[in-house]
């Protein structure tokens, strides 16, 4: 129980001690008391005459949702003048003289001039209608709303201030949403003054200053200011170089260029910033965002409260390091410098990183031990994820070997000519390999991924942003430090960046102007979430690793159990582990089938029966819930098929196009399987676990792609390159090649330059 103005009420767990604003966006989810300020441009239509009903309904829905969660919502609204203007215009058009003109059949309406309407009169005519509209909308969500009209004098008179404060607290206590507006019917014109200098002086000149004043008076946790721009920009919005400022700190005013004020309303962006800083100084967090954009207005308020990167967040706590946007720009600049190095220099960096992995082994394992201890103490990670998190001396040695393979194979990766064509005399065209740009690699519980991906990015000349899981924070930190140490030998330290801020993955996926490719490394759920969240950025990866092994009637007894054991039991958490075992029907109740079952039992593999397999058994294992299951553990499904054709059809229907295997001694059957299975990797008499960049001789991989464009299967250096065209001419113009021109196209293929044999 707490007391405000001697009125007791019960608060929800979201409440916190007021006095200091939130330092990070992620903390906004804890906001209990929230003021939403709706600018005139948000509430009114484009013609400034009437209300934007669709937007208003969406805002009411979001406010109602938050109110029903137990938060205390208040709205500071504009719109009375616009609503009144619509009503008064309507009355003028239907005045007695107009009606007479209509009755007499004269078309005088076209020539009628609508007089300029005085704003106070419009406000007086519109306030009741605006409130009636809010009441009708909130009633749909079983929420009561109450109107409060204020002027500047109400804040200067101590008794009135106390009365206003008590009224608002009583309304909040009764779960009523207060809707506050300046009383524009009586408010005097704004006078220039030097307010907004401190906590105790702020004039209510517009709804921005009103919202700030109320937020501080009511000890509000969060003030959301909705306008018709995305937030604050470092240049006028709409200009070529304008960049949205994600976080704004007191003292950063010099980095902002204010454009013109909105089409309606009294307060421009400069007034919003001054009001926001005043509220921030009073202990209220502030976000300025766009409430008019049709794609985001339907969830802009809830997104802000959830901590998503929307608009500009005002914070008093300036982070020690660069923002993620700055890191992405640093990675791009560093990547371009990296791509301009000689191949031997890039290889030298990777060799140095490989040496550091073994030289600094003890420090790396000590950091990894901290991560493992914290993960075990918290008990949040399943056993398969703990295995992925763990590093060992043998893992580090294998990493170093893989990195040296990458260095050796990267000598001619960037700038390699893959096609030469003579278009015409003295006009030669080349297609050459170039880096993709800036890669964002998101990985969880796999610190060994960091040096692998870094080496591939270095070899291919790409800038790199890394976002690791917090469960591997200590390991990632030291591995990134070693990576930057290796990069420093040629002055490209910034090419690889580790995101350490509280950046949400979903927010990173929206940086389409800074990131060229996203590569997720982790669970199928992580990959699906990233594919869903990515806005305009291609995602390379696979959402699931449902790998099949088909045992044909002509399979070798010696090979079957070895391949199945390795595919399932060698590392069951891997994405290339066996998940579904397909058995030819003729092998049921044979010694070979018994050997397979016995081996799986010895290895403690839990078996799930497919529908057809279960029908053959009197006492069957638990029937599988779905044939599209990636177990990631010592579990697998067994299903029966009648032929290799049915095996292929099953794989296409239930597989994930990752890796699929046939075990047979019949070459014709094997070739049919290899040619007809439409997966990234298709093997004959080999374990599914060979689907790996290191085992393919790529040195390492950034992941395994099941997409059908650009790169497929284990993705090494080649998959991180694209191409550009170089045309070398001598005063050539297209008009010379017209029907009556002097030149003819040759389109001759030219030999490629010799590749570096080393």
Automatic annotation (TrEMBL):
Segments forming domain Aspartate/glutamate/uridylate kinase: 32-290
Family annotation (InterPro entries): AceGlu_kinase-like_sf (IPR036393), Ald_DH/histidinol_DH (IPR016161), Ald_DH_C (IPR016163), Ald_DH_N (IPR016162), Aldehyde_DH_dom (IPR015590), Asp/Glu/Uridylate_kinase (IPR001048), G-glutamylP_reductase_CS (IPR020593), G5K_ProBA (IPR041744)
Compartment list: Mitochondrion matrix
Catalytic activity: L-glutamate 5-semialdehyde + phosphate + NADP(+) = L-glutamyl 5-phosphate + NADPH + H(+); L-glutamate + ATP = L-glutamyl 5-phosphate + ADP
EC numbers for this chain: 1.2.1.41, 2.7.2.11
Subunit field text: Can form homodimers/multimers.
Entry protein name: Delta-1-pyrroline-5-carboxylate synthase
Species in which this protein is naturally found: Ptilorrhoa leucosticta
């Amino acid at each position: 129980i707490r007391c405000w103005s001697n009125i007791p009420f019960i608060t929800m767990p979201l409440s916190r001690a007021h006095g200091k604003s939130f330092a990070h966006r992620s903390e906004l989810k804890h906001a209990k008391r929230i003021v939403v300020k709706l600018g005139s441009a948000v509430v009114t239509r484009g013609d400034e005459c009437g209300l934007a009903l669709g937007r208003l309904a969406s805002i009411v829905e979001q406010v109602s949702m938050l109110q029903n969660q137990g938060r205390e919502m208040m709205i500071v609204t504009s719109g009375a003048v616009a609503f009144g203007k619509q009503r008064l215009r309507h009355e003028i058009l239907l005045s007695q003289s107009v009606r007479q003109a209509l009755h007499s059949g004269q078309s005088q309406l076209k020539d009628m001039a609508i007089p300029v309407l005085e704003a106070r009169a419009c406000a007086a005519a519109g306030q009741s209608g605006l409130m009636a509209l809010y009441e009708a909308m909130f009633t749909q969500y079983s929420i009561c709303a109450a109107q409060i009209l204020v002027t500047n004098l109400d804040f200067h008179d101590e008794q009135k201030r106390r009365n206003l404060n008590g009224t608002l607290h009583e309304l909040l206590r009764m779960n009523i949403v207060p809707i506050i507006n300046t009383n524009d019917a009586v408010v005097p014109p704004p006078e220039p003054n030097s307010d907004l200098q401190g906590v105790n002086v702020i004039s209510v000149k517009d709804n921005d200053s009103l919202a700030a004043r109320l937020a501080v008076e009511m000890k509000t946790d969060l003030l959301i200011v909705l306008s018709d721009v995305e937030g604050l920009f470092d240049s006028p919005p709409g200009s070529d170089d304008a960049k949205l400022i994600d976080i704004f700190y007191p003292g950063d005013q010099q980095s902002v260029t204010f454009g013109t004020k909105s089409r309606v309303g009294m307060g421009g962006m400069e007034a919003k910033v001054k009001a926001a800083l005043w509220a921030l100084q009073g202990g209220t967090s502030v976000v300025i965002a766009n409430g008019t954009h049709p794609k985001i207005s339907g969830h802009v308020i809830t997104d802000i409260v959830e901590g998503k990167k929307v608009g500009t967040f005002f914070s008093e706590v300036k982070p020690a390091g660069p923002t993620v946007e700055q890191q992405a720009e640093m990675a791009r600049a560093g990547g371009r410098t990296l791509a301009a190095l000689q191949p031997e220099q890039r290889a030298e960096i990777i060799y140095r990183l490989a040496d550091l992995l073994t030289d600094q082994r003890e420090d790396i394992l000590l950091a990894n031990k901290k991560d493992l201890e914290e993960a075990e103490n918290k008990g949040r990670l399943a056993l398969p994820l703990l295995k992925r998190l763990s590093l060992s001396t043998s893992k580090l040695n294998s990493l170093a070997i893989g990195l040296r393979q990458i260095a050796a194979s990267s000598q001619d990766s960037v700038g390699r000519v893959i096609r030469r064509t003579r278009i015409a005399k003295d006009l030669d065209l080349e297609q050459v390999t170039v880096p993709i740009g800036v890669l964002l690699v998101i990985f969880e519980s796999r610190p060994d991924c960091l040096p692998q991906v870094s080496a591939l990015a270095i070899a291919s000349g790409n800038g790199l942003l890394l976002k690791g899981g917090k469960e591997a924070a200590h390991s990632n930190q030291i591995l990134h430090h070693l990576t930057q140490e290796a990069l420093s030998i040629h002055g490209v330290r910034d090419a690889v960046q580790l995101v350490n801020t509280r950046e949400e993955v979903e927010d990173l996926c929206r940086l389409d102007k800074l990131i060229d490719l996203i590569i997720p490394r982790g669970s199928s759920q992580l990959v699906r979430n990233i594919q869903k969240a990515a806005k305009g950025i291609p995602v390379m990866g696979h959402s699931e690793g449902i790998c099949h092994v088909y045992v044909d009637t002509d399979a070798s007894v010696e090979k079957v159990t070895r391949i199945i054991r390795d595919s399932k039991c060698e590392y069951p958490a891997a994405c290339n582990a066996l998940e579904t075992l397909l058995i030819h029907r003729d092998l049921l109740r044979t010694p070979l089938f018994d050997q397979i079952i016995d081996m799986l039992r010895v290895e403690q593999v839990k078996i799930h029966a497919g529908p057809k397999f279960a029908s053959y058994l009197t006492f069957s294992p638990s029937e599988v819930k779905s044939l599209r299951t990636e177990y990631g553990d010592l579990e697998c499904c067994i299903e029966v098929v009648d032929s290799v054709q049915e095996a292929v059809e099953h794989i296409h229907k239930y597989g994930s196009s990752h890796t699929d295997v046939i075990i047979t001694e019949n070459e014709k059957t094997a070739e049919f399987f290899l040619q007809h299975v439409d997966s990234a990797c298709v093997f004959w008499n080999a374990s599914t676990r060979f689907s790996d960049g290191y085992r393919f001789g790529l040195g390492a991989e950034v992941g395994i792609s099941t997409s059908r464009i650009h790169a497929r299967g284990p993705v090494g250096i080649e998959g991180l390159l694209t191409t550009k065209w170089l045309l070398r001419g001598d005063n050539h113009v297209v008009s010379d090649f017209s029907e009556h021109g002097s030149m003819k196209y040759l389109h001759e293929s030219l030999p490629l330059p010799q590749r570096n044999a080393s």
